[in-house]
Amino acid sequence: MMAVAFLGLGNMGGPMAANLVKAGEKVLGYDPVPEAAASAAEAGVSIVDSPAAAVAEAQVVLTMLPSGKHVLDLYRDIVALAQPDTLFLDCSTIEVADARAAAELAVAAGHQAVDAPVSGGVVGAAAGTLTFMVGGRSEAFIAAEPYLHRMGAKFVHCGDSGAGQAAKICNNMILGVSMIAVSEAFALGQALGLTDQALFDVASTASGQCWALTTNCPVPGPVPASPANRGYQGGFASGLMLKDLRLSQAAAEAADVRTALGKHATDRYAEFVAEDGPGRDFSAIVTTLRENGTA
Ligand code: NAD
């Protein structure tokens, strides 16, 4: 039985690899951090001692890594070691240009490649309900689908190489901007004497409604499941939001597109992360807006 090589068994990769094991795949995993490797081993992943050892027997190479540099460095090391026509499936969130460069490396070595960044966070990774935004040729997308199906609930083929990353950063730019807009509205509403519930009851059923308000409401109360009700723990970390906003701005600069609100959101999240640290849910930005009225 050919295996799936899974490189990067961190917060996201660990549970994604576990879901492949649950679906009956033989998964050969590698991560340089012993704790990450050990917890994947508990979920049934066979841990090997190098990326090369994982790739040699695999028909699919999955990566879930921190940055484009990690992905490119690794691809440079392993594309020549893989079996011919291996599917390289990178699920990391990285720059569009890096995703295209990674796919070119894989294709030039005789393989198929897709970028397939995800939305759904650690909870979606564990539950197998991730959404994948996929970039690559149609044949590669079709080859990737069964594996994506085992780790997620929804897949959109967005176009050629890099299109998955493009969709991901455009979506998250909307999210960063809309979270600031919703947070400013709660700050202004409070100053004008509105209760949070009254503003929510109107805006959530009127033209102000959006995911940042109705699912991830930044103030405690109106949406009991939102991270605001648990001290902003366990959501989408503001450090990751900042990473994605920076990727959107790098892409906007490269494409010579003016994204003024995206830039503003990037600056605000950079300030917020510098003050608050990267760990709390990104909706915690409302706390600074209410304290000093900036943004
Ligand atoms: P993480 O830091 O928990 O995991 C990354 C893992 O990659 C680490 O365990 C690290 O040791 C490992 N690694 C580094 N170099 C490696 C190499 N050469 N070979 C094998 N493993 C290597 O990060 P994460 O939260 O799992 O995020 C991974 C990617 O998913 C990032 O690109 C992130 O932006 C994206 N993402 C994260 C979330 C989330 O909620 N955490 C949501 C969507 C997308």
From TrEMBL:
Residue intervals of the 6-phosphogluconate dehydrogenase NADP-binding domain: 4-159
Enzyme Commission code(s) on record: 1.1.1.31
Keywords for this protein: Branched-chain amino acid catabolism, NAD, Oxidoreductase
Reactions listed under catalytic activity: 3-hydroxy-2-methylpropanoate + NAD(+) = 2-methyl-3-oxopropanoate + NADH + H(+)
Pfam families: NAD_binding_11, NAD_binding_2
Alphabetical list of PROSITE patterns matching this protein: 3_HYDROXYISOBUT_DH
Xref: InterPro entries: 3-OH-isobutyrate_DH-rel_CS (IPR002204), 6-PGluconate_DH-like_C_sf (IPR008927), 6PGD_dom2 (IPR013328), 6PGDH_NADP-bd (IPR006115), HIBADH (IPR011548), HIBADH-like_NADP-bd (IPR029154), HIBADH-related (IPR015815), NAD(P)-bd_dom_sf (IPR036291)
Listed Gene3D superfamilies: N-(1-d-carboxylethyl)-l-norvaline Dehydrogenase, domain 2 (1.10.1040.10), NAD(P)-binding Rossmann-like Domain (3.40.50.720)
GO MF entries: 3-hydroxyisobutyrate dehydrogenase activity
Pathways involved: Amino-acid degradation; L-valine degradation
Residue span(s) of domain 3-hydroxyisobutyrate dehydrogenase-like NAD-binding: 162-288
Recorded family membership: Belongs to the HIBADH-related family.
Name of the protein in question: 3-hydroxyisobutyrate dehydrogenase
Encoding gene, per UniProt annotation: mmsB
